[in-house]
Structure formats: C-alpha cells, structure tokens
Design goal:
A hairpin with a 2-residue loop joins β2 and β3 (70-73). This protein has three helices and five strands; from the N terminus they run αβββαββα. The strands form two sheets. A three-stranded antiparallel β-sheet has the order 1-2-3. A two-stranded antiparallel ribbon has the order 4-5. The model has no long low-confidence stretch (mean pLDDT 80). Helix content is 25%, strand content 15%.
Length: 151
C-alpha cells in the first residue's frame, strides 16, 4: 500500500512504521513524502511565495523582493515599467543620473501618476524650490549633513 511522494518526484513512499503526530504519520498508512523531500518542496514554495513581498525602509520607501536576496525600491520598478527601460545611472549624485520624484511627497504612493522621472540635478533644484514655497507646506525641509557642526 505505497503511495507516490507528493513533492512530484514520482518515487514511491514507504508505510509509516509507527504513529507520530509531529510528522503526521499514522501507523500502516503511506507517508506523504520521502525523507527530505518535504523540506525541499516547502523551502522552494516559501521562496517562490516570498517574491513580491513588500516592506517599508527606515526612510519611508517601499522595498520589493524581486528575486532571492534581491530587493528593489518599488517606485523605481514602477517608473522603469512605465518608461519601458531602466533608469539611466551614471553614479550616485551625478547630475545626469535619473531619479524618481514623488509628486505628492508621499513615499509610499507609487502609482505611476504620482511619479516623475527627472535628473538628479533637477530633483535637487525641485526640492529646494518646494522647501521655500508657501504653497507646499507639506514638504518638510530636507535636513542634510547632520554631522558635527562648526561653531
């Protein structure tokens, strides 16, 4: 009374020699998996199900798991999908590197209509203008260089 392993390998399983509730064994009934096959299928299933998981960073941006051990900012993924190409990157802080600006200031609102792709240079200028504008009070000033201050 053998059954096939439920991991999909097609191999026959053995009959449970004893009752073991922790393993789900019932004496005399076929086992569901060969030894080690249950862990492999569960690990692969968990890894596949985890793709797409989202979490919030300490800076308020949404990170998405796109592959095992690889996370990407959601706003960048959305912008690149809308553009149909990757953003141009010439290095962090380079004036012509493309970045994504959240129009309404909400870093978790990653709808395409709320995202503006612009150069790093324009993005810095835009934030300076927004910080000075009385029309946009919801944009809090960006605090830079919080290190030791000279007296």
């Amino acid at each position: 009374m053998n059954a096939l392993c439920q991991c999909g390998c097609g191999q026959a399983t053995r009959v449970a020699p004893v009752n073991d509730r922790s393993k789900g064994w019932i004496k005399g009934e076929p086992l569901r998996f060969l030894k080690g096959h249950n862990a492999a299928i569960n690990t692969a299933k968990r890894a596949t199900e985890a793709i797409g998981n989202r979490r919030l960073t300490s800076h308020g941006y949404v990170l998405v798991l796109i592959a095992k051990g690889v996370r990407q900012y959601e706003h960048i993924l959305v912008a690149e999908r809308a553009l149909g190409r990757p953003l141009k990157s010439l290095g962090a802080g380079h004036p012509q590197t493309e970045v994504v600006h959240h129009i309404n200031g909400n870093k978790t609102d990653n709808s395409p209509s709320n995202l503006l792709v612009c150069t790093h240079k324009y993005h810095v200028e835009l934030h300076h203008r927004l910080e000075r504008s009385p029309v946009w009070p919801e944009f809090r000033p960006v605090i830079r260089n919080q290190g030791a201050r000279h007296a």
